[in-house]
Target: Peroxidase
Amino acid sequence: MFMAFFFKASSIPTLIFLLLSCNLIRISETQTPAPAPGLSYDFYRTRCPRLETIIRQNLQSVFASDIGQAAGLLRLHFHDCFVQGCDGSVLLDGSASGPSEKDAPPNLSLRAQAFVIIENLRRLVHNACNRTVSCSDITALAARDAVFLSGGPNYSIPLGRRDGLTFATRNVTLANLPPPSANTTTLLNSLGQKGFTPTDVVALSGGHTIGIAHCTSFTGRLYPTRDPTMDQTFFNNLRTTCPTTNSTNTTFMDIRSPNVFDNRYYVDLMNRQGLFTSDQDLYTDSRTRSIVTNFAVNQTLFYQNFVNAMIKMGQLSVLTGTQGEIRSNCSRRNSNDLFMFPDMESDQDGKLASY
Ligand code: HEM
Ligand SMILES: *[C@@H]1O[C@H](CO)[C@@H](O)[C@H](O)[C@H]1NC(C)=O
Ligand SMILES: *[C@@H]1O[C@H](CO)[C@@H](O)[C@H](O)[C@H]1NC(C)=O
Ligand SMILES: *[C@@H]1O[C@H](CO)[C@@H](O)[C@H](O)[C@H]1NC(C)=O
Ligand SMILES: *[C@@H]1O[C@H](CO)[C@@H](O)[C@H](O)[C@H]1NC(C)=O
Ligand SMILES: *[C@@H]1O[C@H](CO)[C@@H](O)[C@H](O)[C@H]1NC(C)=O
Ligand SMILES: *[C@@H]1O[C@H](CO)[C@@H](O)[C@H](O)[C@H]1NC(C)=O
Ligand SMILES: *[C@@H]1O[C@H](CO)[C@@H](O)[C@H](O)[C@H]1NC(C)=O
Ligand SMILES: *[C@@H]1O[C@H](CO)[C@@H](O)[C@H](O)[C@H]1NC(C)=O
Ligand SMILES: CC(=O)N[C@H]1CO[C@H](CO)[C@@H](O)[C@@H]1O
Model:
C-alpha cells in the first residue's frame, strides 16, 4: 500500500475502546475509503514522479506570502466535487462558480486568486511531465496541501481524475451547494444524498477552521435582530464589522485561530461563536451535537474523520480512464483549440448546449 498515513495502527484499539466505553460518541466510521475504480495512490508514480513535490513546494512559497490562499484552494476543491463531481468543471470559464461569472449568486464566488494558483501549478507540472496530470487532480492535491501547510494532517489521496468537458449551470450549482442559512436537517439531507454520514458532515464543516466570509453570508443572523443561538459579544463585534446587511466587509470564520487548520472551529461552536447557521446549528441539533463536542476535545479524532471525509469527497463522480480529458489550460476544454481537435468541436458544443 502507498497510503503513507499519519495514523498509527495502534490507535484503532483505543478508538474501539472509546466507542464502547462512552455513549456520547456516535462516530462509527473511521475507515479510510477505498480508492474509486480507476483512481490509485500511485497513479503518477511513473507518469509524473515529481508531481506532489512540485505542488507542495510551490504552495509553500505561495502561502508564505499569503496564508489566506490556503482557504481559497480548499473551498475550490469542495465546490468542484459537490457540483457534478471532482472533474475540474469549477475551473472552466463560464462556470457559475468561476471568476468570470460576474453576477453569480451572492458569495458563491470563489477567490479569483485560487484559479490563478491552480493554472500556475498546471504550467509547472506540465513543464515537468507534459500533459499527463489533470486539473482536477491538481485541485485535489492543492486542497490536500492547503490543509497540511496550514497546520493540519498530512495524508495521501487517490489520483487519476480526468477533466470534464462541461460546466454546471447556475441552477445545478445552487442545488448542490447548501446555503450558509441551511440548518442541520437541510445539511444532513443534502450531503446525505451524496453519501455522507452525519459524522462526515460535521467533519467536512471543519473546513471552516480557516478562511473568511463576507457579511452577506451571515447578516441574516444579525438583522433585524440577533439570532438567539449566537453569543452576545460575538454578535456585537459582527455588527461592527457588518454595519449594514449589504456591507462588503469580510471576517474570519474561526475567531480563535483563523489561519490554522485545527479543531478550534468546534470550540467556537460550543461557545456559540459559529459564523453561519449551517455551522452553529451543528451544535444546536441533538443529532450532531456530540460529534461537535468530541471533535472539540480531541483534535486527532477530528483529523482522522476529516481526512476520511475529504478522501470520500475527493472521489465524488470522478471521471477516469478515457473519460473526459487532460486539459492543457485549466480554464477551458481542449476542444476549444480548433487546431488540435477539429472534429470534436461540434460534438462538444452539442453537449454544452444541452444544459
Ligand atoms: C456544509 C456546507 C457548507 C456551507 C453551507 C458552506 C458555506 C460557505 C460560505 C457561505 C462561505 C463564505 C463565502 C463568502 O462569504 O465569501 C464558505 C467559506 C469557506 N468554506 Fe464552506 N461551506 C460548506 C462546506 C465546506 C466544506 C466541505 C469545505 C471544505 C472542506 C469548506 C471550506 C470553506 C473554506 C476554506 C472557506 C473560506 C474560503 C476563503 O477564505 O476564501 N466549506 N463556506
Ligand atoms: C507527508 O506525506 C507524504 C506522503 O504521504 C510524505 O512523503 C511526506 O514526507 C510527509 N511530510 C511530512 C512533513 O510529514
Ligand atoms: C515531453 O514531450 C516531449 C515531446 O514529445 C518529449 O521529448 C519529452 O521527453 C517529454 N517529457 C517527458 C517528461 O515525458
Ligand atoms: C433556475 O431555477 C429557478 C428557480 O428555481 C427557475 O425559476 C428557473 O427557471 C431555473 N432556470 C433554468 C434555466 O432552469
Ligand atoms: C430546517 O430548514 C428547513 C428548510 O428551510 C425547514 O423546512 C425546517 O423546518 C428546518 N428545520 C428545523 C428543525 O429548524
Ligand atoms: C468594516 O469593518 C470595520 C470593523 O471591522 C468597521 O469599522 C467598518 O465600518 C466596516 N466597513 C463597512 C463598509 O462595512
Ligand atoms: C446599502 O444599503 C443602503 C440602504 O439600504 C444604501 O443606502 C447603501 O448605499 C447600500 N450600500 C452599498 C454598498 O450598496
Ligand atoms: C482521540 O482520538 C484518537 C483517534 O481516534 C484516539 O486514539 C484517542 O484515544 C482519543 N483521545 C482521547 C483523549 O480520547
Ligand atoms: C487559458 O485560457 C484562457 C481563456 O479561456 C486564456 O485567457 C488564457 O490566456 C489561456 N492560457 C494559456 C496559457 O493559454
Ligand atoms: C455581495 C457580496 O458581498 N459579494 C461578495 C461575494 O464574494 C465575492 C468573492 O469573494 C466578492 O467579490 C463579492 O463582493
Q: What stands out?
A: The beta strands are 212-214, 250-252. The two ends are 41 Å apart (CA to CA). Residues 1-25, 340-355 have pLDDT under 50 and may be disordered. The first strand starts at residue 212 and ends at 214.
